[in-house]
Each structure stands twice: as structure tokens, then as C-alpha cells.
Hints:
Helix content is 27%, strand content 24%. The protein has eleven helices and 26 strands.
Amino acid sequence: MKATACTRRKSCAIFLFLAVSVLTFVLLYMDIQFQPKINSTIVVPRVSSDPDMHRSFCTFQPMSPEHALEERLILDSTAWPETPLLPDPVSIEQTSHPAHSTFTILPGRRGGQWHIGDQLEVMIQTSDFQGRPKKSGGDFLLARLHNRKLGAGVVGQVVDHLNGSYSAVLSLLWEGNAQVEVMLVHPGEAISVLNRLNREHPDRIYFKSLFRSGSLSETTICNVCLRPTQPMCNFTDLRTGEPWFCYKPKNLNCDTRINHAMGHYNKKVEANEEKLFQSGVNLKVIIQASGPASVIVLPQKEGQPKVKSSTVISGPSGYYYQGFWRALSDTTVRKFNTSAISRCLKGKVVHMFGDSTVRQWFEFLNAAQPGLKEFDLHSPNKAGPYISLDYANNILLLSRFHGPPIRIVDVSTSDLRYIANELDGLIGGPDNVIVFGIWAHFGTFPMEIYIRRLQSIRRAVVRLLDRAPGTLVVIRTGNPKALSLSVSLTNSDWHSLQCNKVLRAVFKGLNVHVIDAWDMTLAHHLPHNLHPPPPIIKNMVNHLLSYICPQKAG
């Protein structure tokens, strides 16, 4: 009997232990599963089971079937042609070399004559470092027409034939000389490296936050995706679902976080792969013509229709002539001097959200409008927020950075605001202008992260336009920039171009306006810069003001 009782007691103890273990597991599982809905809490590391995310250490809130399908369709529609696998180590000799590649202007349909309104077609043949014609596509090429004396320029559309040859179609929009320029931005093999880095190392640029309570302070690493090596604090936004995590401080609670800051950058690229990103060799290098590189454009023939962006194959959004941007859409871009800016913005509230390329517009308007006085909010330089007021004309300008990731100076957590949440806090109306641009800080992440951010903003835009249909919404695209090895690996023009495609797809069909900063920068003769120089910014602001104050009919 004693043995039996003892056995029963052992069985009870084992059962109780198992019951407690199961209960603990269930509670832990529930805590992990519902973490995205809880802010500033500890997250026990886990591996995502979402097969579509490709990054085993990224954790995201579930999407609706509708948004998941949209994400998949966008990814499919923006997929870049794959390049053949190179041997390991990479042999740069087999990749495209601008010095051995050429372009040729094809004869016009009028026996070598071209008129305004025609389209010029250029054939591009890429060759490798040995001069052998390439047999595969995937290179990132840019093409444009320009005339420096006329201050004229327009972007061409490049078509990849997937066999080493490419076509560029360029619209002839001014009379006189039109010079063709073709540029290799990246060989296809370099883009394969960028794709791999964003898929496997989305944390290669990392961020940090300071946690402080009393005399105790700790700094930990933060990111959209963190590797599950230690407990984390979950700072996923409650309303938008935007994910953000920090490793938990050892001696402080998650709710003691006081700022967001840039951390450091790990290249995560092999030494032999760096050869794919050599300035002056295969990184943003001009390809020479095999024959004439320019044509003479004659006046428009009688009865020939004017070129519109809708009638051109994925055509340009506009062009420069005499240094002035002329849109090919239904909007007529006007020139605004100081008094015209004041009249246009009178009684308006302009909300600007996004990165430093949007802040440029805020700064330009401040400098161009003497009546605007910036109120000192003691905000950190470059981070904002900023407010300017013209009391006499009842003009209010506001500028605020988008939510993380942010690669600038330290930002207080109280100033970390997601665009969607800010839009939800606006009343809107015909005297309200919403401007946003968000792209430059997403260059190291898989495109799914950018898509989800834009979907969140779109939902807020839809809500805003539903409650205040008269609100004007204007979106700025990304633009090309100067590239080096490090910039290519963290913020490549290729990724910016992909972001622009995604942005247009997400906001297609909505009553919003797009200012094509990509075309406006690429078509201009000035060098590419992350922050375009003043002449380009002036044209962008003219375009913005033309949306706010369109030219009256008649």
C-alpha cells in the first residue's frame, strides 16, 4: 500500500508538472502570437512561419487576403529579370562593361528625318569585359535626350530584350539638336547582389535607442527585423501595425525608451562582389554610340497630335525646355514668383510629411516667401518638426519626418510619428494640402516592408478623402542620386526605381497627384544628388503650386 501511495504521489507530481508546463507554453504562445497588438512589451524571440516573407527573423502582423494578394501582384509586376549565376568567386569579366557596350540610333520612318512628336528608337548592345556580346539581360540602364544650350531634356523608356540587347524609346519634344545619352547604372549581377542583401541581411543598417530611468541608462540595437538572439521590446505601432523592435535592456523596462538614432552599417558583401560597384568602371558610367549620338528635330508636321504622357509607351511625365519643366499630363505647370506664391498659398495649410527630400520643399518655400516666419520649436537639426507662419496671408506650413526607419540625427520617441497616424488626425478640406514622400530610408529592406508602409498610408488617405473630399494630396517620388559602393549597397538607384513603381501601383486610382522627381532629376543636366539642387527643386515646387492653384480655363 505504501508503495502504491508513493507511486500515486509521484504520478500526481508528474501530472502537475506537465500541466504547469503546458499552461506555461500556452500562455507564452498566446503572448508571442498577440505581440504585434501590444506596445512596449517584451517579445520572446521566435521564427516567423510566413513563407512569403523570406526572412526567417522578420515578424509582421497578418495581412488581410486582399492586401496579401495586392502585395503578391505588385511584387510580380515589379520583378526584375534574373541574371545567370556567376561562379564563386564572382568573375567580373563576364559582366557588362560600358566601355565595350554601344548604342545605335535606328533610322526614322521618314528616311532619317525626325519631327517634334516623333519617337526616336535606340538599340543598345551590352558586352562583357572581354568585348564578348552579352547573352542575358537584367542590366539597369538609363536613357535620356538633352540639349544643354536649350536647357532641354527628357527621359527615355528602356526595354530589356533579355538577350543582352535593349531598346530605348525617346520622345522628340523640341526643335533642334537632341543628344542621346545612355548610362549603365548597374550590371544585372550587381542587382542580384542587392536583392540578396535585402533578403538575407535587412538588418545590415541597424539603429539604436537609449533607455533611461533615473541614473540608469542603456543603449540597445533596434530595427524592423531583429535576429532572435535575445528578448526584445515590441514597439509595433498600435494603429498602423508598423513593426519596430529593440533588444530589451538588461536592467531597464521597455517603457524607458527615450530616443531613436542611427546605429551603424555592416556591408555584408564579399570582397569580390565589391568589384561589381566600381565608380568609373561599371557604376553609373556612360555608354558610347557606335555612330551618330544626336539627331536634328524638325518642326512638328501639320496635323500631328501633341505628345501626351498617356499616349507614350510608359512615357515621360514631362520634359525640360529652357530650364523649365513642362508636364505632359493635363496639369499646366506655371512659374511662380514671390508674389504669386503668396497669392496661391493664401489661406492654405500645407502639411508636409516624409524624408529630407520633402523637407527641401519646405525650406525652399521658406526662403522664397519673405512673409513666412519659421517658429523655433527647438527641434533637432534635420529631424524637425518645423512650422512656418505667414500671419498676414494666413499661410501655415508644417513639416514632419516619417516614422522609423530614420537614418538621421537622434530623434525623441515623442517625435516619432507615422504618416498614416498623422493623416488620421487631420480634418482636411479645400484649404488643406497634404504632401508626402517616403522612399530614401528603405533601401536596405525587402520590398514587402515598403509595400506595407504604403498600404497603411493609402488607407489613411482614403479615410481622409472620404471625410474631406476637397483635400489636395500630392505625392513625391524618389529620385536618382550620386552612387558610390556604400551608397549603392544601402540606397541604390535601382531600389529607388522599384519603390517608385510600387508607389504608383499602390496609389493607382485614388484622387491624388504625383510629382515625378525621378524624371525631373534624370532629365536635367545637373549631376544626380540625393537632395536635388535648387533649379530642380524650384521646378518641383512650381509643379506643386500648379496643383494647388491650377491655371484657370480661358
